[in-house]
Amino acid sequence: MAHNFKIGLLTGLVLVASAGTALAATQVNCPQQQAKRMITDRLPSGWWTTPVVDRLSQTKVMNVGGKPTLMCIYGNAGSIQREAPRGKACRAVTGGFTCN
Question: What's the pTM?
Answer without folding.
Answer: 0.72
